[in-house]
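If you are new to this repository, start here. Below is one unmodified record pulled from the training split, so you can see the exact layout before writing a loader.
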Amino acid sequence: MQDKLSLMIPGPTPVPERVLLAMARHPIGHRSAEFQTIVARTTEQLQWLHQTKNNVLVLAGSGTAAMEAGIINVLSKGDRVLCGDNGKFGERWVKVAQAYGLDVQVIKAEWGQPLNPEDFREALEADGAKQIKAVIITHSETSTGVINDLESINKHVKAHAEALIIVDAVTSLGATDVPIDQWGLDVVCSGSQKGYMIPPGLGFVAMGDRAWAAHKTSNLPKFYLDLGKYRKSAADNSNPFTPAINLYFALEAALEMMQTEGLEAIFKRHHRHRHATTAAMQAIGLPLYAAAGCGSPAITAVAPQGIDAELIRKVVKKRFNILLAGGQDHLKGHVFRIGHLGFVCDRDILCAVAAIEAALQELDAAPNPMGAGVAAAAAALQSV
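And here is the target side for that same chain:
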């Protein structure tokens, strides 16, 4: 059946009908009073979602654009930074920092393992001269399904007193608690096609006071991504460049839905779906890729033994029109990833689990009897 594809990947995520309908409106002038009203409204909504009273700036771009903007707006050429690397996106921020001539010290962990906060503590405490200007962290590592201990790492950054913390919250914001003001996070970046429940195209950067102070002396090259321009325009409920107008319509509608559900309920739903998905995979007999206790509430990575993970994805898509994510780089064929992020409900989890079980049965690769995964998922959904 056509037009029945179900997205169970970590982005783009499913989009609610009311958000799609909002986006279908005719565009309006981006310098009009009507659009300024929408900017004012979404600014308040974004501050609510980010749990901050400070700026949350909106870019026409992806989460990568938001992260690049976050890095280049608070640092200068040759600055020393610590960059956490335990997956594809940690690797990406190392490359971005190096591309801008930063002095990068990599804090590394194996893919599937979380970053060790003690490694950051040791590096920061050894910096008696206070030369480290920033710590760059991926909160939820999308490539491996690992969530890093941002709160503990941030405490070590705060003890250093000089360094800023720059956070990739692309698949954690809107899925788990990221209390920016409470934790004193300096720069937090995210993208629209994840927990926001809207299509790709918007990047978000939340900046605190310490970050804005660093912006004054930052000398890395920037023009379109100069957040100073966005901050100045935001004060007038505007944008320095042509914004993605219809995505603003979508953003307003999606954030209204999120406010109706409430932050606590949103976080609880994502954690319940992680619990149900991991319980199901274990009942089926499929090993999890992320280290125990470190699974992301946004995505579960599964490492089947004795069968190509791409075959499972292929059958699930062909037979059931459910799209799972594959492994990246050296994990291709070894891992498939189940997204449970954004506009996902209990029914979606049960359908995905059932489809995976049926695919394994068709491939004659089911470790355990058919139905064990669905039963485990159903029990987990009821228990949390």
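Two things worth knowing about this chain: The chain has a mean pLDDT of 97. The CA atoms of residues 8 and 324 lie 5 Å apart.
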